[in-house]
């Protein structure tokens, strides 16, 4: 890390780069060297202090970076491998809602059905997505996909006005690549989620410019893995039991 610090200090430190390279008429060479050393030591100290802060920021922001999508277990495995492709969508909660409307003698808007077929949906609230996952399938086949993306704009995600405000739902007419789909906590390949890690690193570069060069994508993957939960784990069984199917 020392060598990398030296590179960053020489290329990025305003204080260091603005120091005179040769002694001024009124300053001795040893004095200039001493001053430069003090500046560089101070800069190294600031970097070292900011790295833990930046890493903690990633952990703390996880809940604000994650969104959920309810599906089947097969659907989850597929999305983790190829992403959420609109062309690959199957009949899900919308089909179940249409069936309920038909049985009740009511009509589900064709415009709504068309919109639903041409978009990917996520919710910031896990229980909402769990409810959708349970809507047209048994509990043992229900699953939740986690979409990791601090920047919704890149994915084209906007508020879904067909859903209630309490759903905290968003939709996009774009495919969501596998690089934004979080893998399973216990046995997933973290490298597949690299596009999300790049987004997170870009945010760290803006917020922690001194620390970011010393935090790799692999380290970001490890930080996310520390704090993520998994719908396949025992810790969320109670959440699944309490989730209410959507209608």
Largest sheet: 3 strands, antiparallel
Widest beta sheet: strand line-up = 2-5-4
Uncertain runs: 13-23
Counting H and I runs of at least 4 residues, what is the number of helices? Answer: 11
Helix fraction bin: 40-55%
* Intertermini distance: 55 Å
Descriptive account of the structure:
The chain has eleven helices and five strands; from the N terminus they run αααβαααβαβαββααα. It is mostly helical. The chain has one domain. The strands form two sheets. The chain has a three-stranded antiparallel β-sheet with strand order 2-5-4. α9 crosses α10. The radius of gyration is 25 Å and the shape is elongated. The chain starts with a helix and ends in a 5-residue tail after the last helix. Residues 13-23 have low confidence and may be disordered.
